[in-house]
Amino acid sequence: IYGQWYRELNAFGSHSANNSRLSPGMGVVEESWFTTNPKPTSDLTPHEMEVLHKWWFTGMVQARTTFKESPEKKQLFRKLANMPEFQDYERFFCRSIGGHGVLIADMHEKVCYKFIAHESEEEADEMFEREFSMLERVSAVDPNHLVQLMDVERPPLGSIPMQYLDGPTLFDYVREQRVQNVDFQYMAKQLVIGLQELREAGIWHHRDLNELNCIVQDGQIIIVDLGWATDDPLAQPTGARRSRSSGPVNNDLVSLAQTLYYLRAGEPLFGSLDDLDELVRQRHYAYRDSVILEHFLGKIDILFEGPLRELMRFALTSNGADGDYQTARSFLS
Where does residue 49 rank: exposed (0-12), middle (13-18), buried (19+ CB within 10 A)? Predict the structure, then answer.
């Protein structure tokens, strides 16, 4: 039902935290959305249309990723729209929308509730249990750079209560601060520490590290969305195609380097955003031919210098072993 809402969201997958009201040039709503796409919304009740309007077409628009049209998300939306506890629109709003979940923020209690959407109920339950268990592990080590589980007496049925973060994503932060004013070395250090904290919690891979899954909160970078996190050292890469690692085994350091390059350059290290298949193909061949990989490492040399340059080159050629994280951090000490 959500179609192509915002031109900017479709292009960049983000919406500025400081511009929550839709306005020309900042997440513009397609003017002909209702008239050109009547079928996706034709079976919504008047109440559901009202909720859709209040959550996504007014000042409460805070979604940071595109809510792509899918039957399972439509079903989840209808469930949330008709839950009595979410009828207070001054208290609750849609904080974030991802590949398999929706985050509803409670402004009074300062907590977020994550709901999982999947076409298979069984797989949705598995994803719920996996993310909940990952958050339990993370909260047990009391990290500084990872989102944590919240202790809520009676959370909404089917939700995961987690830490409320109202800061911008890394993407929004870099855009608002302007690239030349961003301390990428400090940013990289916090991200590496966050990945180390994952290992301390017994979580081997995040598997979806990118600029939209990192929140800048009070000067600290917090890694969020543990939906694909795993304690399996041999887990295969998954998550966002643009920043995932290449090879039979996941490597978050490779994802970290690609994310930093994208934020600094405004374009992916491999390929372009216009053709993700070509991007994946270029990355695939780069990691199977050292000559091709060296070409892309040369792009790192152009944009970065000093310790950050060394970190980027190391991260892109690392194996993702425990020692690699300590080595990566040593570049930034």
Answer: middle
Return the sign of the alpha-carbon dihedral for residues 141, 115, 215, 203.
Answer: positive
DSSP assignment, residue 57? Answer: S
pLDDT, tens digit, 9 for 90 and up, residues 47-83: 777 776 666 543 333 333 334 456 676 677 778 878 8
Give the Cα separation of 73 and 57 in Å (integer): 17
Buried b (16+ CB within 10 A) or exposed e, 283-321: beebbeeeeebeebbeebeeebeeebbbbbbbbbbbebe
Give the integer Cα–Cα distance in Å for 174 and 181. Answer: 8
Q: Which two tokens stand for residue 64?
A: 């940071």
| C-alpha dihedral, 174 to 179 to 185 to 188, nearest 10° | 30
User: Could you tell me the pTM of the whole model?
Assistant: 0.81
The SS3 assignment for 235 reads: coil
User: What is d(CA 71, CA 25) in angstroms, rounded to the nearest whole number?
Assistant: 30
Specify whether the CB–CB gap between 249 and 320 falls below 8 A: yes
Q: Residue 184: which residues within 8 A CB-CB, separation 6 or more?
A: 260, 263, 264, 304, 308
pLDDT at residue number 70: 61
DSSP state of 299: H
**Residue 228: φ, ψ to 5°:** -105, 5
E-strand ranges in the chain read: 92-97, 101-106, 111-116, 159-163, 214-217, 220-223
> What's the per-residue H, E or C state across 99-155?
CCEEEEEECCCCEEEEEECCCCHHHHHHHHHHHHHHHHHHHHCCCCCECCECCCCCC
Q: Is the C-alpha dihedral spanning 38, 40, 45, 50 positive or negative? A: negative
Residues 6+ apart with CB under 8 A from 266: 179
- Coil, helix or strand for 24? coil
